[in-house]
Amino acid sequence: MNYSTIKYFDIANGEGVRTTLFVSGCRRGCPGCFNSEAWDFSAGKPFTREVEGKILDSLSASYVDGLTLLGGEPMEPENQAGLLPFLRRVKEHYPDKSIWCFTGELYENLLDAKSRCCCKETQEIMSLIDILVDGPFEQDKHDITLRFKGSSNQRIIDLAKTRAVGKLRLWEDDPHYATHRMNCD
Predict the structure, then answer these.
(1) Which residues contact 113 (CB under 8 A, 6 or more apart)?
(2) Cis link prior to 72 (omega < 30° from 0)?
(3) Rounded to an integer, what distance in angstroms lies between the CA atom of residue 103 and that of residue 105?
(4) Residues of the chain by 3-state class (helix, strand, coil), percent to 5
(5) 32 phi and psi, to 5 degrees?
(6) Using CA atoms, how far apart are residues 128 and 52, in angstroms rounded to an integer?
(7) What is the pLDDT of residues 121-177, one digit of tens each?
(8) Residue of 177, 131, 134 whose CA lies nearest to 155
(9) How far apart are the C-alpha atoms of 141 and 176, rounded to whole Å?
(10) pTM of the model
């Protein structure tokens, strides 16, 4: 697996301060994608054990809330195979840090054994992810006022709550941020 970028101290791709890993490779080709240079599976650099170590070190800071996976497409089968051992290490070292994953795939498709992106790693990867932002980017539904998603068709799914209750639960934003209005009384 290759990665195109790693952002440390990222505040745009999930709650709080995060380390964000942009994997390489995506077959979706969504028109208007903000990261089309990462569509090529050979783009960027190899995701080595040394790179994993740097990311793990970055997560050790108390002010870092967790890890975010973006792409490219983290849920391409090749990327799942590369990510699973790393995500195990993240949860082993930092069980209280959240993992967010942005994917163009729908949650339901990731659970469907007949789906192109459902592979032997999918179920375990999904068990390690706390928040899943799902659905393809749709240019005609692009909305810059949306927090943590690019188009209104995308969902932010709280996988931890979904697992706990046995049915899909959407993530609930802090009401202070949900309206995009700041009250300074």
Answers:
(1) none
(2) yes
(3) 5
(4) 30, 20, 45
(5) 85, 5
(6) 16
(7) 999 999 999 999 999 988 889 888 888 988 899 999 999 999 999 999 999 877 766
(8) 134
(9) 24
(10) 0.90
